Amino acid sequence: MEKVILIAGGAGQGIAKSAEVLAKSFTRRGYFVFNYRDYPSLIRGGLNFNILKIGIDPVASHEWKADYAVFLSQQAFDEHKSKSKLSITDSKIKGGDLKVDLDTIVQKAGAPKIAANAAMLGALYKAMQHDTQPLMDAMADYGKHADINRKVAWEGFQAYDGKISKFSELQGKDANYFVSGSWAISMGAIASGLDLYIAYPMTPATPVLHILAELENDFNYKTVQLENELAVANGALGASFGGSTVMIGTSGGGLALMGEAMSLQGMSELPLVAYLSMRAGPATGVPTYTGQGDINFALNIGHGEFSRAAIVPGDAREAYERTVEAFYLTNKFGVLSLLIGDKHISESNYTHASLPVPRVTPERFLVGATANHKNYAITSDGVSPRAVPGKKGVLRATSYEHDEAGMTVEDEPSIIKMVEKRIRKARTLEKAVSKLEPVTVYGEGKHAIVSWGSTKGAIIDALKHLKDVKFVQISYLRPFPAKEVEAALKGVKSVTAIEVSVTCAIANMLREFTGTVVDHKITKYDTRPFTSHEIVSKMRRVIK
Questions:
Q1: If you ran DSSP here, which 8-state letter would residue 468 be given?
Q2: What pLDDT is stored for residue 171 in this prediction?
């Protein structure tokens, strides 16, 4: 059983916070909740809304049609009234199934006007015929304002005397984790021994900066906001040379500025994790909405030929474990680790029964420096032992082609040796990634869906309503897991590629690396994520 709740109103009415509190009141009772957040690209004002899908079994996507809707402004009601079966509105709003006199409730409780959203949550609990105690417990998230919000919520509960649309209550189930992709990435970085996070704010990567800044004193690392993205990337490489475990974060426009520094990483082989949270482009695009159209740019960032790992988790649980893998790979192999998400995975909240135990153990892979240590030593696997500057000897990191000691070279034999060393490292990286389950198959069937990243949730939810369909999720786009993909697609009748872009880059990758020509492409480029309903509808046509 699943129910969908829409909460909508003006910016400043506490829409996001009330949705979070409501979602936590359900997750703490054992429900699974997915929270989708929608807000315009405005510094101030505009219409905001959240959509919660709540289920007894796991859910991982939203839907546009709601069973219950809470409207806090006339604009919100006018724009979204057709999306709900049962709407609860402020008494000042024209229209709606049931009205709640928010002004009277707030005045009676002696609460600030913004607390009106708590009254609507209380009314919603009455409409669902649920005991309010879980909601009251979740209101601890309002901090010092928790008690007054509880009072307002109770008044809202009592004021509701309309239609009841009961949603089954769970008994005796353990609480679930309710986390965003940004939170999961932050925790993965901390678990990996993060020393330094550097960023310049850019939506939708900024939440990671905020989360890590808030927790830095608890976990003994530093967050730094520099003046621009060029400084971020180059500063991070300098810190990495000094031995720090470093991550940087940005979105598309910021990554564009980091391109030269990404090439510097390729030549210097200094460990670096770069987090990219994609949004709609080109240029400024639609900055608070989602898209996967940056993927080709990200996979080919930087001039010259050099190795990289490009990791594309599909939900918050994966974001945690794949972040640990990103740090492991960059430290062990000295490659650029691109951790790639988008607005949808960054700012949506997922419910997971548990967080995973990572496949790898975080390590710095440092050796002690000697008087004649060579940071670019030629090795059989292309991976050079890494040391950091200290009292012994001289260590170099350089943007020039170089010899084993880091000294500039321009003669052909020396250049060939170093180029071939880096190519061997790429092959070593490929073998390591093959052990990290880069491809996951969900379901069974002769019709295959192939996709990556945040589309996972809607596809997984869609599989519940599709027959003879399986989902091949790719979690690494570099090195591309060709053998694993070929094995997953063996014997299928049709292959459908799904992506939030207009060009469907994953279809081209399948052809390039495996020779597979997809039969169908399902793309979406209105800057909104897929719902499971959309995928079910389109896949049924494919099968037919």
A1: S
A2: 63
Element (H, E) at 162: none
**Which residue, 287, 355, 362, is CA-closest to 315?**
355
Residue 172 to residue 452: CA distance in whole angstroms: 35
- Of the candidates 12, 7, 14, which has an alpha carbon nearest to the alpha carbon of residue 45? 12
**One domain, residues 250 and 282:** yes
Q: pTM value?
A: 0.95
Number of domains in the chain: 3
Report whether pLDDT(350) > 70: yes
Residue 382 located in a structural domain: no
Residue burial 426-461, b: 16+ Cβ < 10 Å; e: rest: bebbbebbbebebbeeebebebbbbbbbbbbbbbbb
Q: 417 or 372: whose pLDDT is higher?
A: 417
Q: What is the CATH number of the domain that holds 523?
A: 3.40.50.920
Q: Do residue 130 and residue 33 come from a single domain?
A: yes
Q: Does residue 458 fall inside a structural domain?
A: yes
The stretch 424-435 carries a mean pLDDT of 97
State the Cα–Cα distance between residues 249 and 263, nearest whole angstrom.
17
At residue 121, φ and ψ (nearest 5 deg) are -65, -40
Half-sphere exposure of 43 (CA within 13 A, CB side): 0
Domain that holds residue 490: 439-543
C-alpha to C-alpha distance for 277 and 186, rounded to whole angstroms? 13
Q: Is the pLDDT of residue 172 over 70?
A: no
The percentage of residues in the chain with a pLDDT greater than 70, rounded to a whole number, is 99
Asked if residue 259 has pLDDT above 70, the reply is: yes
DSSP β-ladder status, 308-311 and 476-478: antiparallel
The domain boundary, picked from 313, 334, 352, lies at 352
